[in-house]
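Project outcomes to date are best conveyed with an example. Our students and postdoctoral researchers have been running inverse folding experiments weekly, and each run begins with a structure described purely in tokens. The record below, which covers 366 residues, was selected by the lab manager from last quarter's runs and is presented without edits.
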């Protein structure tokens, strides 16, 4: 993520707030009384207009996205697809979205009593090629989950030439720094404490119960760079429609067909600001999730972001889940402001509901 200039931020805020103003039209608008969950396949609205959306404005948003080179877009309201286009079924790297996926697994095992977030790197036996200092070893799991470990060691799977703060310049818990070392070590710690591989655990606890259509644990991989660090990155390939399903699980507070898959309390904790970030007052960070404040969107929202401005956004108050993939393999990226502007333009198409039970049809994903 990078800083946005003030002019671009102001224009984006105005656009987003105007889009979200439709949410106040009626207190239970957009069919919140009936909250369907997709079974083995997704449903989509048979008629945008009857579901309370403007088809011409949705089409204009699509034209804008296509002009930017977006490769896949999916917008879900109330568990039903409003619109989708592009390659929403193909597997592609999710890059840093992987961190939010891991957050869900941590929540499950914290609730089981297997993981204690106050455990330190020293107690866990974590070290690296360049030996960690006593102070660095005092960093806790909670510090890593909030990207405040204070350990500025080289890490696998980070951009070449990345300039980190000097080692020892911050103590654990003092400074937020988006650091792949923290995230990679969280993967190692998870596997040590639970005895499970990340990709198999995700399949068992999340992908299979919510009936992801394309996920296979075999598409997960470890990225080793032993000359930099002992700790590998864990890389994941997923489809856009499976990412949307994961977002819907979080929008539903971890509950899926009567089963509490991810603890509701953990979802609330992990998507609540734990630390400010140096990208402006509209951003904060929780436990491996990014967060928008209400002053920016008109409603609180949380999101996962990956290289190339891949996005998974959840707006709980609107029952909205949004996924955007810039490219199947990132041959061309869409910048962060543009990625969010696609969603803003889609939200301008949102009108008051015209019926409480709009007809749905099976999604085809052509």
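After processing, the design step wrote out the following sequence:
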């Amino acid at each position: 993520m990078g800083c946005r200039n003030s002019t671009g931020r102001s224009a984006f805020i105005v656009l987003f707030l105007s889009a979200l103003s439709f949410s106040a039209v009626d207190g239970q608008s957009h069919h919140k009384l009936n909250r369907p969950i997709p079974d083995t396949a997704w449903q989509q609205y048979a008629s945008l207009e009857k579901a309370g959306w403007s088809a011409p404005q949705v089409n204009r948003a699509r034209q804008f996205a296509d002009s930017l080179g977006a490769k896949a877009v999916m917008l879900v309201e109330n568990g039903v697809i409003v619109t989708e286009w592009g390659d929403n079924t193909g597997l592609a790297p999710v890059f840093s979205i992987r961190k939010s996926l891991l957050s869900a697994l941590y929540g499950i095992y914290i609730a089981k009593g297997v993981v204690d977030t106050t455990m330190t790197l020293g107690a866990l036996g974590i070290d690296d090629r360049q030996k960690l200092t006593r102070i660095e070893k005092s960093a806790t799991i909670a510090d890593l989950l909030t990207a405040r470990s204070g350990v500025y060691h080289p890490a696998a799977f980070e951009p070449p030439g990345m300039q980190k703060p000097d080692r020892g310049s911050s103590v654990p818990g003092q400074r937020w720094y988006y650091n792949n070392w923290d995230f990679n070590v969280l993967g190692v710690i998870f596997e040590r404490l639970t005895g499970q591989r990340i990709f198999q655990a995700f399949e068992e606890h999340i992908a299979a119960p919510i009936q992801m259509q394309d996920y296979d644990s075999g598409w997960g991989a470890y990225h080793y760079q032993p000359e930099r660090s002992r700790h590998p990155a864990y890389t994941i390939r997923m489809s856009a429609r499976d990412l949307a399903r994961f977002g819907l699980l979080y929008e539903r507070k971890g509950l899926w067909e009567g089963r509490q898959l991810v603890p509701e309390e953990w979802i609330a904790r992990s998507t609540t600001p734990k630390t400010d970030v140096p990208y402006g007052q509209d951003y904060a960070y929780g436990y491996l999730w990014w967060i928008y404040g209400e002053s920016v969107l008109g409603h609180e929202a949380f999101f996962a972001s990956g290289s190339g401005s891949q996005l998974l956004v959840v707006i709980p108050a609107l029952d909205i889940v949004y996924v955007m993939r810039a490219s199947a393999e990132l041959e061309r990226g869409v910048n962060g402001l543009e990625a969010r502007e696609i969603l803003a333009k889609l939200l301008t198409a949102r009108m008051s509901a015209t019926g409480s039970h709009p007809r749905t049809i099976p999604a085809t994903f052509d």
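The mean pLDDT is 87. Residues 22-90+240-256+277-362 form one domain. The training component of this project remains on track.
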